[in-house]
Amino acid sequence: MARRKGKDLISQLPDDILLHILSMVRYKEAVRTAAVSRRWKHLHTKLPAVSFIMSVLGAQGSSLSTQSRQRVDSMARTLRRRCAGPDRHTVKRLCLAYRKDVPMECRYADEFIALAAASSLQLFLNCPKNLRNDDAGPWSLHLPAATACLSMESCWYSVRPPHVHGPGASALKSLTFKDSFMVLHPGYLQDTAFPSLEELHISGCTLSGSIEITSATMPRLKHLRIADVSGVSLGTATAIAVLADELTTLRVSCHDGGKPDPPSSHEMLCVETLFRASFTEYSYFRLRAPKLRVFDWRCCYAKEVRVDAVGRHLSDVVIELFAGRLPRCYNEAKRFLQMEDCDKLMNDVLQGIMPGRWKYVQRYIYTDR
């Protein structure tokens, strides 16, 4: 008796379920499913997320370790076909990985961003580590009007943050520097206006000087997160001023390079770098946010904290401080953060966010490790 051929039950599923399945694999593999059958031929053109990796430095033994015009041309044809068809408005998230030192890849990246007009744009920027003056040079990023969320990540300090322009600069609602090696220079956040920006996340960046985040350029900013943002060296004065009239949430944390160790613990020395201090220490932190509701400060140390106004909306306050031995490189002397330093910082913060309410407090209790 002949064996009965099984039915293709998966292909009979609705489009939304098949698209959900395809979304769990890499975009390159999703495109290849077009060869399965006529049912699958155009499914990948409806995926909400499109990801193109042009080339990545350090991927030894991989085809991505070198630039390839042929590979990038194939990506361009794929996106052009999709954006010329009836599904041209279905790209919701565009992810691009490319090298800032390869003009061909930069040109295609600009074209992909314009073609997709995605509401969410994620950029992973690469460049060699032996550039002159460790600087990949200034560059600009033209955002379509549809772009509401922008996230950037770099693999090396040479890549500067871009000058953001175009209709998307006015429409952008969320901006993220995600776990990047980017160096934020003084004035960068004041040079470009983001009139619609509501969320700003700065994570893992390095400050070459002081920065200001103000309502002058971000009048609608409501949520600000600063995580593991350090100075380029211990001797660099890095002050942060947050003067935001509409800000409701502020979260500042420095667990990476900012948390002292118990004096009795085994000391692990940090690897010396030319672009990042071994310990995060702000020379000054100023806050003015009359509509602030959430104040979350963890493992950050500033020599001086000044809180001008937070109003009566404050409902959640978290302050986490640790005394102990500070992280250091092999060529740096041992330093300690004393309880007296934590007491002063705690007092400055509390007196600022709740003026008059902590006048008679003489003792603070710190959570043990």
UniProtKB/TrEMBL annotation:
InterPro entries: F-box-like_dom_sf, F-box_AtFBL13-like, F-box_dom, LRR_dom_sf. It comes from the Eukaryota. Residues 7-56 form the F-box domain. Transmembrane segments: none annotated. PANTHER family: CYCLIN-LIKE F-BOX (PTHR32212), F-BOX_LRR-REPEAT PROTEIN 13-LIKE (PTHR32212:SF234). This is F-box domain-containing protein.
